[in-house]
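hi! just following up on the protien thing from before. the input was this:
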Amino acid sequence: MSDTTVLPQGAGYGVGKWIGLFFSAFMLIITAIQARYTAYSPKNSEEFTSASRSVKPGLIASGIVSAWTWAATLLQSSAVAYKFGISGPWWYGAGATVQVLLFAMLAAKLKLHAPYAHTWLEIVGARWGKTAHLVFMFFGFATNIIVSSMLILGGSATVTDLTGMSTLAACFLIPLGVAVYVVVGGMRSTLLCDYTHTTVLFAIILTFVFTVYATSEKIGSPKKMHELLAAASAAAPVPGNAHGSYITMRSKNGLIFGVINIIGNFATVFQDQAYWQRAIASRPATTVKAYLLGGLAWFAIPFTFATTLGLAAVALRGDPAMKVLTPADVSAGLPAAAAAAALLGKGGAAALLVLLFLAVTSACSAELIAVSSLLTYDVYKTYINPKATEEQILRVGHGAVAFYALVCGLAGLIFFYIGVSMGWLYTFMGVILGSAVVPIALCITWSKANKWGCIIGSIAGFAAGIIAWLVTTATLNNGVINVVTSGGDFEMLAGNLASIGVGAIIATVSSLIWPDDFDWETTRAINKPTPPPSELEEKSDRDSVKKQASVKESIAGDSYAGSEEADELDPVALNKAFKFATYSSVGLFVVLILIIPLPLFFSSHIYSVGGLSGWVAVGIAWTFISAISVVVYPLYESRHALTLMSKGIYKDLFTKGSGKFVETLAPASEA
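and the predicted 3d structure came back as:
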């Protein structure tokens, strides 16, 4: 296979090993700096799993972008662009952005109703008991396994296609390399690694954008892209598109994919501990801001990347350097790799390989620490050792990271050998996960949510999704049910709609008929720290000097005074944040899913050269704004912490004094 690949096999192993080792070494350095020059140490379990709940919005937004940039973000978005034209990138980007935006509402309620929880399952268990905890634990772990499998499948398929590297080796090399630096650094250092990944991600994406639309001899401008896409439409019209064109939003199959995408991604955001983890790690006052910023910034990645390489793969059909893509190749997400290699040769293939590896490892790190938290707090501490010590919790957390890294590799390998591709799994995830979306959202946000209605709704929706999917497959394919026939658009659409619809209806209707009356005191008490006796005795003294606060500066840019926490957890302020999140996220949902795409769909408009140029210009502008938001802004908000850290390093290197961080008292205004 290596004889027909763009890059040598050693490139695949080299990227897998050396980039993994680089980030492991980088994490060791970061951890050492963090321990010496900041108030935080990853040897503390709270810091390891939740970064002491003190991270500022810019870094959280960067972490959200990184965690949400899967292999599918780059590969599947380009595949749908290759199949459906310009509608594919829009429906992929918008259909997976709105969930993060709407999650801002859940993040606000999390800080209001359970500010000290480690996982979303802790809230379910505290509110509804053991049965609900175990039922929703199934959905939580199923979500993590499916997301992780997609990461491994997409990453290994592309690495194998570009380099000829063994798929088996790729499946294990990716998660095991990530596990090393997650174990070393914990949540805060993982966020910093995410930031590094995100920075490189935007740099490489912009390189591809300007190559395709400005400098390439093969395309080089939106005008030439329009000409090539029009020729491709004439040669092979797209079924279901207006006039068979690639440059129209009128795409029946694109719209179907959009619906499937929206449903499936609700499940993988609302039920994935990786997103709750970032809400838990963020400061209460800025949680909503972080999720809105992260969601909007992320949209630019699939939209612009797929509008670039996905469309380039169509435009370059027939080019001598362009690989001929089979339906299996498209399902595996290979159009982007083929286009990159055709445009830039080995350089393009190498850039995409690095880009993909960073995306996969970054998202994989989020999954590893998320599952580690679930195994530590919802399995070990809940059912095995309720009186676990700090040291035991940290040890189990480290072991869980290593264990789940092996599970990721095995899951990816199993799906590979049974013939399930990343594209198939991506459209299937909503079938088995969608039923729990609304029940979980109701559990966190609505005091009247009925326990048994939500449990039964989740189980019934799961069954309904599977039945609808299989019945539709059999009906449309003369009774033939296999991986190929079950992966069709209508088959997956039926399963997705039945799953989320049945779960939502049963949970909502039962709660309206038999409402609970939950006061949230139980969930607010989860892991609530008890003030030491000395603090209780000195409470009156502290009240008189309330303007003094302990200043904790961290490498993550956190200036988080202890006295600020109570202010930021003020119910009035958090309810106000929830309302803002609701108006903002629902408004953006309406704009991205209804106001912009549907009129364009129903008008059957075919884009002119000017229209396509404008479409591309919007993508490029959005990408630059996103890069500023999640690359430059985190540095700006961390400027005081970076200055403090730099002074400490300078003291250690060039003066006789010690630069080690020492906690001091300062006026609250300075903090």
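The longest helix spans residues 335-384.
Strands lie at 548-550, 665-667.
cheers
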